[in-house]
Amino acid sequence: HDLRNEDLKDLHELGQGNGGSVKKVEHLPTGTIMAKKIVLIDAKPSVRKQILRELQIMHDCHSDYIISFYGAFISDPNICICMEYMDKGSLDGIYKKIGPIDIDVVGKVALAVLEGLTYLYDVHRIIHRDIKPSNILFNSRGQIKICDFGVSGELINSIADTFVGTSTYMSPERIQGAQYTVKSDVWSLGISLIELALGRFPFAESSSDDSDLSDFEGTLSPSRPHPALSLTKEQKDKKKKRKSKGVSLQGGGMTMSILELLQHIVNEPAPRLTPEGRFPKEADDFVDSCLLKDPDARKTPKDLLKHSWIERSRTATIDLEAWASTF
Ligand code: ADP
Ligand code: MG
């Protein structure tokens, strides 16, 4: 039962990311609805075949917290990856639609991601490498699953060659060129959880009239559609004072380059769940431990499964199916 492109009927586009797009499709012979990811790979046929071979590991990934895999094939010049369709989409889309996500739901997200990461690493020695809200998917059965993990070394290399997108969930040690470990995924999880709980990317400036958010002064916010970042007035002043380190500003000084965000992640204190007291102390503590800047001090996903907030989230009786039906 090999998947063939001819058997897939395009329904509509689900979204676009770096170097590819995802479509909702129907597998006509079986009537199965799938998500088909189309990745443009600018590589030799031999490399493409190698990628396809490496992707087959996904057939052996079976976990409630990992998107199921139906198969992959080459459709020149693309590689198509067919996976389980999640009808409520990714968590970035959800918070952009409904606003900040309730902290108890965020706790269930943290639990699911840690379970998924632990499964991938313990069973397959796979490190995810791309944890972010758009790679955490949700469905109307109330399930939370992760997708787009780095199973294929060749695919990672091929995409890295053309990679220009946001690296904003990247840990300080990765930015500084250290080897990728499961702990880098933990950092990305911490950033993602803050984003979901606050309803905005954590390296975000306050809007000018939001005096209660003044702790965000001096931090950054992404400006769409480019991975460029706006500066608050304070930052611009600071920046003038310390004189630009050769990083050019775009658009008359209103935006800064991705390079500056990366410098910020490395040099400034990590973001936190703020303001103090808005969220349970255990949640604050969990996020803080994900965002320890020293990877040696940061725990692994497996260890973090024992954190008190995660244990509490595990036993929490929130009806995610009911929650899903509200949007
Ligand atoms: P990114 O993850 O960077 O947004 P992708 O190309 O991986 O880029 O995915 C684009 C969008 O497609 C995602 O943001 C997500 O909303 C949607 N998507 C991806 N996979 C699925 C899936 N299996 N089911 C439903 N929606 C999906
Ligand atoms: Mg993705």
Automatic annotation (TrEMBL):
Q: Which GO terms describe its molecular function?
A: ATP binding; protein serine/threonine kinase activity; protein serine/threonine/tyrosine kinase activity
Q: Which UniProt keywords apply?
A: ATP-binding, Kinase, Nucleotide-binding, Serine/threonine-protein kinase, Transferase
Domain spans labelled Protein kinase: 8-310
Spans annotated as Disordered = 207-251
Q: Where does ATP bind?
A: 37
Single GO BP term: MAPK cascade
What is the superkingdom listed in this entry's lineage? Answer: Eukaryota
The record's family statement is:
Belongs to the protein kinase superfamily. STE Ser/Thr protein kinase family. MAP kinase kinase subfamily.
Q: State the protein's name.
A: Transporter
Source organism of the structure? Ganoderma sinense ZZ0214-1
